[in-house]
Structure formats: structure tokens, C-alpha cells
Amino acid sequence: MDAHTKLKPITPEEEAALAELYADFGTEHLMPLWTQIDDLMPKHPAPKAVPHVWKWSKLYPLAKRSGDLVPVGRGGERRAIGLGNPGLGGRPYISPTLWAAIQYLGPKETAPEHRHSQNAFRFVVEGEGVWTVVNGDPVRMSRGDLLLTPGWNFHGHHNETDKPMAWIDGLDIPFSYQNDVGFFEFGSERVTDYATPRFSRSERLWAHPGLRPLSGLQETASSPIAAYRWEHTDRALTEQLLLEDEGQPATVEQGHAAIRYVNPTNGGDVMPTIRAEFHRLRAGTKTPGRREVGSSVFQVFEGSGAVVLDGKEQRLDVGDLFVVPSWISWSLQAETQFDLFRFSDAPIMERLSFARTHVEDAHR
Amino acid sequence: MDAHTKLKPITPEEEAALAELYADFGTEHLMPLWTQIDDLMPKHPAPKAVPHVWKWSKLYPLAKRSGDLVPVGRGGERRAIGLGNPGLGGRPYISPTLWAAIQYLGPKETAPEHRHSQNAFRFVVEGEGVWTVVNGDPVRMSRGDLLLTPGWNFHGHHNETDKPMAWIDGLDIPFSYQNDVGFFEFGSERVTDYATPRFSRSERLWAHPGLRPLSGLQETASSPIAAYRWEHTDRALTEQLLLEDEGQPATVEQGHAAIRYVNPTNGGDVMPTIRAEFHRLRAGTKTPGRREVGSSVFQVFEGSGAVVLDGKEQRLDVGDLFVVPSWISWSLQAETQFDLFRFSDAPIMERLSFARTHVEDAHR
Amino acid sequence: MDAHTKLKPITPEEEAALAELYADFGTEHLMPLWTQIDDLMPKHPAPKAVPHVWKWSKLYPLAKRSGDLVPVGRGGERRAIGLGNPGLGGRPYISPTLWAAIQYLGPKETAPEHRHSQNAFRFVVEGEGVWTVVNGDPVRMSRGDLLLTPGWNFHGHHNETDKPMAWIDGLDIPFSYQNDVGFFEFGSERVTDYATPRFSRSERLWAHPGLRPLSGLQETASSPIAAYRWEHTDRALTEQLLLEDEGQPATVEQGHAAIRYVNPTNGGDVMPTIRAEFHRLRAGTKTPGRREVGSSVFQVFEGSGAVVLDGKEQRLDVGDLFVVPSWISWSLQAETQFDLFRFSDAPIMERLSFARTHVEDAHR
Amino acid sequence: MDAHTKLKPITPEEEAALAELYADFGTEHLMPLWTQIDDLMPKHPAPKAVPHVWKWSKLYPLAKRSGDLVPVGRGGERRAIGLGNPGLGGRPYISPTLWAAIQYLGPKETAPEHRHSQNAFRFVVEGEGVWTVVNGDPVRMSRGDLLLTPGWNFHGHHNETDKPMAWIDGLDIPFSYQNDVGFFEFGSERVTDYATPRFSRSERLWAHPGLRPLSGLQETASSPIAAYRWEHTDRALTEQLLLEDEGQPATVEQGHAAIRYVNPTNGGDVMPTIRAEFHRLRAGTKTPGRREVGSSVFQVFEGSGAVVLDGKEQRLDVGDLFVVPSWISWSLQAETQFDLFRFSDAPIMERLSFARTHVEDAHR
């Protein structure tokens, strides 16, 4: 359908008049809908972002080379390398809403404190020895942990060890940038507390199943839990599969266990713009193709398998990341037991009533 | 103020006319407000229920004698002995809204399955060896555990051991009775599953801090967690006091740690009508006098101390229960470290906007 | 089922021991569940309250006689005559939760100001000339209007005319009394503002469809609209029936239009404990039998017909009131176009998750 | 702050290594944060969009010329001319989230039916004679009315008269486009109902103050009211100023009346992404400077005055539109009584917890 063609005038006089009209539109900062509606309002989401896989085997060495060449400190703030969606014209956006990066901190290094409106988390695919200090609360970062830094919390990181450590960061930077919502403030050049406790104060106060401190009865927009530990995630997934073995309802679908990380003050997502989940597939499981409004990023945590993105199968190993743009079909295939961390912009889609999901018929 | 007197007519004729009017009111099932308003609408809550302490040292032996004399089974359903508030005229109500009972199950006994609209929980002050089977899910009952049976869940109990076990039951029976909301259905004469797993399926699915199964994303009126284990409660309270020692905000007030048991699907109370909490006071702590709209029941779990109820101090030992009627001042005094379980009708008061609290000035 | 009988011991020794046990229970303020469970936890709501009809032709003359004999003023506060459910043992309760009364104010009389936790409304079946002053805002009371006095708002009434006026009051007095939630405070002996504006300030600020003042963006527990005017109610019902005539979905069921009065700050009920609705049936309409948890009161506003309460048909004329206790079947039959005001405790039932409805098959 | 400079390596070898690193980043679709953080995460919102005023005296004639030259029909769908923010690089976006356009429909013309995920409204600054048919419900469009077309409602327009009509459209097209949430479907080539009733069925069912049809008790994401009529808006604003004259709290600030259009099912915004308000200033009123996160568009409905945008005063006449990008200071000055319609993306900001407001001290 070419609306413009269809609406083309017949006579040269009309053509000239139309050209003049469009010129006058330009002068007055006006643009006709009728020539643009096909692009602006497609039949279904037509993302410029494309599905893409980043191999950890490429990412980690590049992060390491950065560690050798680029200092970390005030100004640059973080040695974080963003994954740029090939479809998004060179912007450091993994999707229109989400930022994903590998962050690398050398032995004994400190990333200085700052805070910003953007919501952030870190997920640790390997390593340990770094503490992130969130509003003065030192939070250990270890393999399999999800660490939150909701908007406007001061935070800095420091590496206590003689070895470097890398992890992934997830933020809503593209969304915030696009919609002009972000504030930013520098904090301390060094982190405010170099203690290295096993558990943060936030966990000690909040990470007890089904219990809430009486001193914290207000609902908060983001989760007060700074660290979601791997041992809990692993146990929850293990139990789901055991329950399935026992014939009990527990998994999302046969062979597919999954948890959502939530804010204990309301049972909802950990932060207003970002959903975080962890998925475990039994070896041999294939999930049906799914299309969802909104974009997601997965990282393989353990095991191997493949993802079929928009019909194209791509092999996945530990650490590999991939992005699923809006309304692109995705399906997972587990070669071994297959563990994947996932984050997405689903809270945006749900809170604004744009969410839709289509699950393809597995039997076709 | 005596409205009736004040309004009394002057002449004998008027008096006769008034008597006739009141008689006609009676015939037509009418009652004047003006003679009753002082009672019906007091200046502040004027509960008929009175503050009262029940000693565990009296309760337990009576429960044991019941165990010897009264069988448990279909019809009587439960060997539960309700605590009747002395002010409530012989009704088995510990307060206008709440039922509290000691329940006793002999060696190898089974209490048959049934379900009802009334919300119920059990709290275990001592002992172990009983499993309560909630909608087919066997739930171990051990010291310090809170076990939920929200409205309309089938449930029965069985004692696996050669020793009796007793615990307390809390329900909203008076509220349900008064307001005509209750349905009741018999289930199996024996419990449907005599397995004795260490953890119920509900815990395995739900009791992971800050994690929610993807198969359970709907908000539910009551908590899906059947058992809140003592080890978690104890750890949460211990951490609060340690954090206080470290100068961090964590406790309700100096020396007073407390948690609320919550529904992980929304962060709110475990059941629509009943709030459950656990309080720990350091030795020597005295809480300020508090008045609250709505009624509460406390049970001492560990330690010793006293409660001041409406100005009268009463000593408390392990297992003792006391009720605080609406707007009666209460204050706790800890001789040793002092652990108390509490339940109340606060969700009713809050959901219906009747909640009010007054904390007395500690320095008066 | 007679649990007590079933559990009766066999030997005289056992009988004596049991009697002693029960005596000791009494001493310790304990009551066994097993002898009481049938009454306490019935198979379905078994209200002590009974369905009952009060005839306006009886009520109004009695109210008038009260006007001649009983002064209105500080102490008695209101010349309100409560409808006492014949099943509720002489208490001035139309149901376990609700109070309904006819209130009568003579020419030029003033009912003094006071406030209380109890939520109140007035509905005017006939007459005009009284203003109720709610927190200083004079609110005209006219035929067909619903006037709100949510908990803790000062209010008094005054009659501007030379004629008496009567209306009905609805409150949650029994619920408040039973659950000890009520506070009460005297205000001015005379109303604070004797102005007689056509519209209250609350209406001028709030009663515009779909519009909210920017100065009032907080959600409030009760509606900020003091008066719901008959002209709006009548028009809404008229439109529903016209839309039905046009084949559009608009009515609850064929021939049955109905509106709920709502709080514009959240779309929910006007007050936390009381629901108010207005129903209009076309002549000839019969509604299917309905059972609901919770109690309702209806008043006929216009037309004539009948109600079938628990299988018993009773004729209704203008002004007649009837109560439907919990789980009692009710069905309306319209002889003429039939207009009824209804109020109920449904918000209590819904907020506490006790609500259930059963609609009988119309074709049986 | 120039992070890149600061981090520049010292030796030529390092420089070469760094260049190679950045080249390898490019190959792997990676972008360093440290060179981009200043732009990506500014100290406060730094919108590319600029404040801008469009004069109705320019817009309307251009729309009229389009009417003469460009047909309306399937394909182009609408004769809508979008206001393109001069800062947004030629995109037809008035702000990063919002689309605003003038739409023009000639005598007897029909704009065909379609539906889309994008939420839309129309506001009529002058004229009448067009009906918009929303899901089969014909809705009259007249001066001062706000007409809603929430996402996924079929809608088309037709002009009944011999005169053209123009109005403004507001949508969340840029937000939907940017975040890939949109679906689009064609409907009927002609509108499905050419009736021209004075009131739409939606108004007849829903536009009664404080009343809700019992047939519509579910909360809906968008308002069920299709038309918010000028007479109600005008009356609400008039009353606010009268109440202010009487010394009552009613206005936002002295001399500034305002209403928000709301969804009667929950009291919240009319649609999930768009807030709509109407403001009236008394002659002579100046509002304090305000900065808000998120963007707004105003249209002058009546009167004259000025707006100060980011310190620059611009005169405004009837029909003029202006955009306030995120965190740009704005202040209104009323020469005459000054009426302005406003819409914004505030629901997005609030639902995602990005909202912030700063009101400048009026006395500086």
C-alpha cells in the first residue's frame, strides 16, 4: 500500500500546488500523516532492532583488553561495554528500551559512586570478589546473583581481590534517554564503605521468605532487596522440577521451570521498568515459539542449547547473550540442563496496557 | 448524659402518649435511637470484651484431660478448646472477631478433613510430630511454625508419633458467625495423604525470598505459603537486633524487633481477616502503651516478662496467651529476651478504614 | 449431626470425669468446639436475622407521633427510629451489620452537629426543605437524593420550612458496635451554617461527569460527593432502558436497569462499609432469585410490586422497606415501573473475600 | 567533563592498542560507556525536543489547502497534519512520546474506520458537524469537547455538513513507534453507523456524575466515556472560581482553576499513556514556573495571554498550540480569562516512577 501514490494528484497544476503545500508544511514544522502512516503505524510491531547473539567468548576477552588499556574512575565512571543492537544504527542500545553491557573491574579497582534515575541491575555469570555499595550498604557479588540498583540509589563497586571480575549490567538507559526522564549525580570518588560482609544489610532485613520487617511496611516502587542469591534461585528451580516429577503443578510448561524476581512489598517486578527472571530447561526440552510485545535479553548461565529467533536457530554456550526484539518469535532448545537469566521491559508494557503474547501451536 | 430522662415529657397525658408510642414501636419492630445512642455510639470503643490472660500451665493440662476423655472425629471434628473472653457472656470468642483455641491431638490420632469460609491458622508453641494436610498438601507442624489454612481449603491433621501434641488455633469464627458469611463442607474422614515430608509442596514452590514461580503470577486473597518456619522468623528477628547493634534502622523501636508474616503475591496480610506477627524484645525493654482499634491476641513463645493491660500488670510465662480488646492500652515488659507471637483483626480494620492507633508518650 | 451425643462417654465414671472437665473449662474461661461446631460453623450462612417488610404507612405515622412527643436536641441527638430485625432479639439492627431508621424533623427544627466513626447516609423518599450540614457544607435534601456522611464528618440537620420532613438513615452502627470501632464527638448545638444553597460545595467541586478537580487528586476512602441527585439517577436509569430498547447492552438483565453510586476518586463504593444502588424494573419484570453473602435493605421509591423473600411473596408500595439477610433468596416483581433504592454491606464482604452470589435458574 | 580525553592513553603504542580495541568493539556490536556517558546520562533531562509554538492562524489555512488538494480515504486514512518538533530531526513528533496534529474533514467526507494500539483523542477548538464512530457508537464532535479513542477501538469520522471542520488529534504514536508496541487493522471503508445522535451511547450509559451502570463494574484500562462535553468542563471550572471567590479551597492556586479528565472506573487517567486536563486562568493571573519530567502540549481554547517557555515569553491566541519538553520551565500569563486544553504523557512518567516536579519560587 502506498498512500502517497494513491493520493497523487492528476494535473501538473495540482502537482505544483501539492509541492508548494508540502514546502509550506516544512516551514511551519508540520508533517502529513498520509505519507507516513504505513511506517508510523505498522500492522504489527516492526522493530528496527534485530535479533542478535553475542558470544561470551568474544565479549570477555574484549573486556579484559579494556581492563588493560582503559582506566576506571570519575568521568568515564564505569568500564562497561554496551551491546549495540545491529539494527539500531550505532546506538549503544540492545533494544529500544534496554541497555546491556559487560562490566569489568580489575584487581583492587574501585568504580566511583554516583546515582541516576535509570534503574540498574547486575547479574554475575562467573567470578566473585567485588562488592557493590548501594546507598552505603556493601553487597557481595557472586556467581548467579542478581544485584539491584534501583533509580536514584548511590552506588559504586570495588574489587577486593587480585583477580579481575566481569559481569553484566542491565539498565533502562535507552528508554530514559528517549523519553528525557534522567537525572544524574556524582557521589564519592571512593566507595563509602569498604567492608566485605557476606550479606548486605538489605538482605538481612528483607530476604526472609514471607516475612516483612515491621519497620518497613510502606510499599516501595522498587524492591528493597539488594541481592537475590543464586542458592535461592537454584533451589526454587530445583524444587519446581522435582514437583513436576511428582506430578504436581509447578513448572510453566513440561520441562520448563522458571522464577520471577519480585519486590516483596507488593509481589510485583523488582523495578518499575525492568523484569528479571530465571529459566531452567531439562535436557531435551523445546519451548513453543512465543511472540511478545516488548523486548527481552537472555544470558546463558549454565549448560548449552540453542535459541530459534525468528525462525533461525543459533547455538548458545555459557555466557552468551541474545536479544529478542518486540514481536519476534523465540524458542529455546536445551541440549543439557539449560539455565538462562532473562530481563525485559515487560513492566513498561504491562503498566501501559501494551502487553500481548502469542504462543505458537507446538504441534504445527 | 441520660437522653431519655432529658427528653421525658412533663404531663401525665404526655407520659401516657409516650408509653403508647413506645408500645407501638415494639409492635412494628422499631426502636428509638434517642434512648440508646450512648450505648450504641460511645465516645470511644467501649468493648464488652475484657483484657484477660490465660496461663499455659492451666490450658495444657485441661487439653490433656480432654484427650483422655473426648474422642476426635467426624461430628465434633476437632479437639479444640476455645478461649472465651470473660466479658462476652459465655460465647467462645476471645474477642468480637477472633477465636483462639488450644487444640490437642493424641498419639496416632487423625482429625478428619473439612473446609470452611473461616480463615484459620495454627501456631506451635511446643512439640512436633503432627502434619496438617491442606488441600492435599502435607504440612509438618513444628515448634515456632505458623501454619495457614485460608478459607475454603480442605484440611485435616494427623499425629504420626506416640506422643500427643498441642498447639493454638486462630480463626475469624466470631466475625464470620456474627456477619453470616460462613460455609462449611465435610471432606475425607481420614486425611488424604499420610506422607510426612519435611517441607510442604507449597513451601517448596513459594518459600524462596523474593522469588515467585512463573506458574503462580496471579494475586491471591490469601498467602500460598502453608508454613512459615521458625528458623526464618528467628533469623529475621536476630538480624534486626544485630542491625540495631550496628546502628542501622531495622527495629520498630529501640530493643523491639518484629516481623509481619505476609502474602508473597501482594506483600499484604496472610489472610483477608487475620494479621500475624512475631515480636522479640531485648531483656529490659518496655514498650510504650499503645491503643489500637481492633483486637489482638498474643502468645508468649519464649522468655518471661509482663504485659500491662489497661494499667494492670500481669506476669507472663511461656505459652501464656492474652487478649487486648479494642482501644485497651497494652505495653510489654521483657524480663529476659522475650518472644511473642501475635495475631489480630487488623486487616479488617484497615480495609474498612476503621484503623486508628494511639501511642502513649513514654516519658509521662 | 449431634457431636455431643456422638461423643458421649459410656461409663458413669467417664460421665463424671467429663462433667468435671467441663466445669473446669468454665472456671478457666474455656469452651469446647466439639459441642458447638454445628451452630458456630453452619453449612451455609444461617442468619438469626429474618427477612421482614416494614410498611411506610405504619412508619410515617409513628415518626409523626414522635415528632409531637419527643424533642430533638443534644443528648438524644436525632429523632431517628431504628428498624429492628425481629430475629435479632430486640437490638435496633436491621441486619447484623446495618442500621436503618426513619428520621423525622419538624418545622424549623435543628438536629445538632456531631461526628462519629460510623458511616452514614440519608435517602429521601419524599419531601424537601431540610439541609444537612456536612463539615460545614450545607447540603439540600430533596426527594430521590442520596446524601452521604462518611465516618468522622461533622453533621447536623435543620428544617427550613413550616412542614415536617422524614427520610431514611442508613449506617453501619451494628457492625461498628459489634467490632468496637466507634468514636463519637459532639459538635455545635446548632448547625454551623444555615445557608440554603441549591447545591453543596462538594457537588459544585465534584459532581461533573468524568472530571476531577486538580486540587483533589488524592484517593479518599469515601466519596467526596455529599449529594447524589435524583435527576442524575433518574436519567441514568431512563437511558439504560432506552438503550435496551435500541438493542444495546446497558441493563443488568432484561427489563432491569440499575446504577451503583460510587466514589469518583477510585470508582469504588461510596463508603468503606456501605454500598448504595438504585434499581428500576419495567412493569412486568421478574428478577431471578438471588442469594448473596451479606445483608441488604431496599426501599420502594416509586411504583408497586412485590418481593419474594425466601419463597414468600410480599406486596410492596411506595416507602416500604425490607431487609434481605445473608444467603436468603430474593426476587423482585414489578407491577408498574418499579423503582427501588438499595443499600448493603457488600463492601465488607468483598474487601474481606467473603462475597458469594448464587443466581437461581429462571426457568425452574 | 570529557571522559574520553581524561582517559586518553599516553604512549603511541597504547593509542594504537586503543584504536584497535575500539575497532574490535565495532565488529562485535559493542560500544563503550565511558565515551558516551555524558550524553546518555545527563545531569537532568536534556531533551532534544525544543519548546515551540504553532500558530492556529498558520495551521488552519494549511489544513484547508490540504482539504482542497489531498483526498481522504483508505491508505492515507486521515487528513491529519502532524506538528513536528523542530528539535526532533524531521520526525512528525511533537515530543518524544506524543503526536499532535490538526485534522481536517471536508463537507460530507468520511475518514474510513481502522483501529490501532495507539491511544488517541480529539479536542475541538472550533466548529461542529462531525461524528466520530467509535466501535460502532456515533459520537458528536463539538466545540470544547474531548473525544476519546483508546487503543484498539475501531473508529472513523464523517462530516454531516456542508462546511469543513478541523480539530486536533493527540496520540502516543512516537512512544508506540519507538518501543515497538503497535498493531493496526483496517475496518470498514465507510463508517458503520451514519446516525447523528446528540449523545453517544457511551455517554448515555456512563456520563452521570458519581453513578456507574451495574452492567459495567469491571475496571477498564481506559475510560468508557467517549465524549467529555464542554458544558461540563466549563461548569466545573466556573464553579471552582466561584468557590474561590467564596473563600473555599477549590483551585490549584490563586486564580487558576483546573480539571483532569478521568476514567470513571478507577478515577485515574483517561488512557494508559495520555493525561488530559483543562486549565482556566483569571485575567491577570501568572502561574509560577514549573518543570516536570515528561512532555506536555497545550492548546489555547479561549482568551489570550502568553507562555514563558524556558525564560522566553511568547504570545498566545485562540487555537495556538505549544509543546513543553521534559524539564523545561513553563509559566502561563493570562491577559483575559484564559482557557487552555492540555495533554501530556504524565501517566507514563507516574506509572514508571519517573515523575518529578519542581515549582519555582514565585517571589524570586
Automatic annotation (TrEMBL), chains A, B, C, D:
Organism domain of life: Bacteria
Matches recorded under CDD domains: cupin_GDO-like_C (cd06992), cupin_GDO-like_N (cd02216)
Domain Cupin type-2: 103-169
Keywords: Dioxygenase, Oxidoreductase
UniProt name for this protein: Cupin domain-containing protein
